[in-house]
Structures are given as C-alpha cells and as structure tokens.
Amino acid sequence: YGTSGQNLSFEDRKWIGDWLYVLGVNLLNHHLELYTMRGKRKRDYPPNLFWQQPWWKYNRLIEDYFARLSYVLSQGQRIVDVLLLHPIGSAWALYTPYNTTKVKELDKKFLWLIKELLDLKIDYELGDEILIEKYGKVEGEKIVIGRCKYSIVIIPPSLTLASSTFNLLKRFVEEGGKVIAIKPLPTLIDGKESKELKDFLSKVTVIELDRHSILSAFKDYQRFVAIEDGEGKNIDPLWYHLRKKDDSYILFIANTDNKNSYKAVIKIRGEFYVEEWNPLTGDVDTPYIEKSGEYIILKKEFPQAGSLLLMLYPGRKTDVKEKKLEYETLYDANLTENWKCKALDYNALLLDYCKAKIVGSDLNEDERVPVLKAHQKALEAGYGNLFELKFEFKVDFKREKKRDIYLVLETPEKYTIEVNGKEVRYSGEGCWIDTTFMKIKIDDLIKNGLNTIVLKGKTDFDTELENIYIVGDFAVKNIDNEDFIITDTPENLKPGDFVLQGYPFYAGTISITSSIKIDKIPDKAILILDDLNAIVTEVIVNDKLAGHIFLHPHQINITKYLKPGENTIELRLVNSLRNLLGPHHHKAGELYAVGPESFLDEKNWTDKYNFVPFGVKNIKIRFFKQIS
Fold first, then answer.
1. Residue 236 pLDDT level (bands cut at 50, 70, 90)
2. d(CA 386, CA 381)
3. CA 326 to CA 345: how far, in whole Å?
4. pLDDT of 106 higher than 80
5. What ranges in 194-335 are assigned the alpha helix state H?
6. Domains, the chain, ranges and CATH?
7. Per-residue DSSP letters for 92-108?
8. CA–CA dist 431, 438 (Å, integer)
9. For the whole prediction, is pTM greater than 0.85?
10. Do residues 5 and 590 lie in contact, with contact meaning Cβ atoms separated by under 8 Å?
C-alpha cells in the first residue's frame, strides 16, 4: 500500500489486496506502520497504517477479511494448466541505456498479454527460464516444474530463448504437448540466430497478438470457470483463482474494477455441492444453484472491488430450491432533514506557512514561506545557527464560552515558544494524534483578530522544522482554500461535505443522529447512505451496534434493530489523516503516488489547499414487503 496516500480507504485496501490474492499472493506485508510520525517520517511514502489513524480501532474489519482469505488461499495447490514464458532474456538482449524504445515496446506487448489472458479467464503461471532449466522436465503431454504441471505453453512476443528452454519445448511437442507462439516470434537461441528455432516454430500454433487470435488458439480449451453477463459475454474485470485441496476445490473471484459493479453468471464445469464463505464475517451460506448441461450456475452481483469465495465439494448436489426471499419496495424514509451532527474529536487548524529568520540564510524574513522550505534553508545554513519562525492565524469567535484550545508541535523542548508575545512551555498536557505531537494549552492567550506564535531555536544535527497545529473546540472557516479563520463551532452540519463546513483539517469522527417513528417492524429495512465519503461508518440503532459500512454498496440491513414507535439512528463517520497531513499544495490535487517529494514540489506548487471530501449527502431507510 506504500505511496497510496493517507486517505487509502478500507475499500481501496480490499481492491488492491484482492488483486494480489487472485494472482497468488496469500500474505500481506503492509507499508507502513510508524512508531512515531515525528519529522519527515509522516511524509515517508504514506499511508501510515497504524494507531495514529482515526480509523485504527476499526482496522480489524479489513484485516480479519485478509486473515481469513490468507488461510483459505494457502490451502491445497493452485490449479493452472497454462505456462507463459517470461521474456526477461529478450528484455536484456534488447536493452541499452542509450535507447530503451525496443525494450519498452516488448514490455508493452507483454503487459497487454498477461492482462488479456486474465480477462479471458485463461489462468496461467509465469515461467522463469533459469528455474525451468533447473527443475523442468517432460512427463507425457505435460511440462513439469516442481509440483506444477502444464499442458499448454505460451511463447510471448520475444527475441531470444534459452537453449535449455528450447530443448525442453521440443521434447514437450514430440510428446503431444501444445505450444502457442505469439508474434513477433523469437529468432535467437542464447542470443544467436537459429534456423532450428525457425523450423520448430513452423510446427506449432502461431498467432497474432490480439484477442480474436488468442480465443481461436484456445477454442478447444476446457475452462473450469466461465464468468459472463446476462447475455453470455465475458466480464473482463472479474478474475479468478482456483485451488484444489484433497478432493475439494476453492474458487476465489475478484472484481478488479474499483469503479463499476457487475451482475455475473458464474458457470462451473462439473457437479458440486457449493458453499459461499464470507471472509468479511466468517459466515458460511449455501447459494442458489441452477444446472445447465455439464455446468452448475450461480448468479452474483459484484459491487466495485467486490469478491466471492466458494468451496466446491464433488460427489453431492447442492439443493437447487430457491431459498432467497423476494421483496418489493414500499417506500423510502429520509433521515437527512432532521439530523444532528457533532464532532467527537478536537478540530485542527494547520499552520504550514511561516515567516522565517535564519542566520546564514537568504530567506526574506518578511515573506511567508512553507515551513518545509524554511527547514531546507535552515539545513543549508549549517549547524549552530539561530532561527526564528513566526506563524500567524486569525480568530473570530462570536460566542463567549470556555473552550479547549491547544498549540500542538513536535519537540517543544527545542524551542523558546511565544504565543502573542507571552512565553509558554510544554508542561505535561499530553499528546495529540501521535506521541510526538505535544499539546500546550493556550485558550487563555489567544484573542479575536490576528494571533502570532513564534518559535526560536538553534539548528543542530537532528533539527526538524515542522508544521504546527492549533487544536481544540472550534470550527475553521475556509476562504477559497487559501485562508482560514478559527470560528465558533456550527450549530449543525448540512448534508454533503463537512470539509466545507468548518472541518477542512479535521482528523477524527463525526456523529450524525436522526430519528424515525414507525408503526410496526417491516419485513426488511435497509439503511442506505448516498455519496458517502468516509473510511468507515459505524451504525448504531437504538443504542445497539448494527454494523459498519466501508464497502460499496453503502448500505446495511437494520431490520432486527428497529422497534415500533420512535427509533434513533446514529452514524459515526470516521476519516483519515489525509486532510491534516496532506500533501495539500500539489496542482494535481489528490495524488495516488505520494512520496516525500510530493509535499514540497516547487514545480507543481500551489498556495491553495487541496482536501478530500468527508461526509454524506443523504441518509435514508428503504422499507420492503416480503412477497415470496
């Protein structure tokens, strides 16, 4: 997950993880978990998948999913009948640092091929020629490499083959094995022109690099699984992973499309008793199965980044009776109109610009500069130089009330700190977000209008000049994503984006409470969230936990938690560290490849701030009546 950015959602993690698992990975090694986010660590190819994230308490929702999936997909052995040779030898033969055009073209063709085969449900494994030389042999009509056996070998677009590979392929074809060679064909053996190779390729199936040719070459291929839409057309983004354990089969199907959902007809060759295992919950269900010729068929809707895990047991049939209840919609009840919203964590104002006076630096001390640029200039000036950073922020409180307001900064012991001209020190108020983000209470020192914070110090070997934060019980007025003013918290929040309503830098949970009166408990009631932007949403109905929403579709069955009369619905929307930690100033907006350079990219810098949305547009309950 490294470089994905702090706003990597649980659904993103599932989408990326499912892609890995359907291709054969069975254990995730996360990037990264930071013991502390002090200094540049917070910018070290985020996200930080650890306790500092607001969503950390819910992390097992997605981690348990992968724990279960890891266990299941490490059982038995993967069933693959096709070996695709990897053209790394050709890549080295074509590569020169002075002109990479040819090797890039080879790479482009190979990437297209490996994805096309997966889209067409022609599962394969990649053959490394060094390993093939060491372990490869021919047994009957199959090439055997260790425990793996293949009846079809694909030679991709390439330039050269190893002589050991070529000799093995010759024996394989002599024994009745099938080789499919895709143009442009190799002409070299061990880097040398070979007439014998040319003669060999004239005797195997040679095709063009296109879908029609691939399908023609595999027209007699007995697929175990077909995944189609209602019209019998292949659904490209649904990839599968098949394993065999003892006499049973494990079938995992993943929607590799994180934007679109698909209604799939899954055809499995053979007669099986089928169980659907849910890695999210640990539940086991028996899906409705139809029979058509030599196939069993089940229908499944895959939401974006959705998946399906099936256990297939031969020797007994699945009960084909329709078990699924059918319902018709009665009406939708809108809960947005009377909701009440409350932030459950401190709000924050990020101060990432300052006026810097650094001995030995060419910075203009009257010019606002990014703090990270001031840090660079301080390092360039060398150790032992005095510096002074001046931060400014505005306050406009209308209501007189006691508020918790803190200055939060890293390594406060390294600075002389002044708030509106008065010196303050860290005196044990604790930390916020991270163990190195220390709080200093300043609610008695700030005032309406312009406020200043000054940090004075001397550079040494571990000086890290970092952004600071004003944290507490307030809202932050956003003026065109360029200027911000601390204000009173709003009486309520409107449907939509909370970032635009006083919480641009907020990292935490916002509670939304609404109520509805019903005369009797319906046959089915589904809570539906429209345009939800949150990492996870906790759903509480009548003070009971009903579940969590973190995947599409953004809905949950709440029937058993309702009661006749007044019902209270609470949603707790949780976001990430993204809007607090950034990167905020890249012209491209939200980045999906984030590294240290993303936070101070002067070529792509904008003084405007970029945020990701946080909130929900509409909340409704859809009531159903059972009709069968």
1. very high
2. 10
3. 42
4. yes
5. 195-201, 211-217
6. 80-217 (3.40.50), 225-324 (2.60.40.1180), 333-344+503-589+613-626 (2.60.120.260), 347-472 (2.60.120.260)
7. HHH--TT--HHHHHHHH
8. 4
9. yes
10. yes
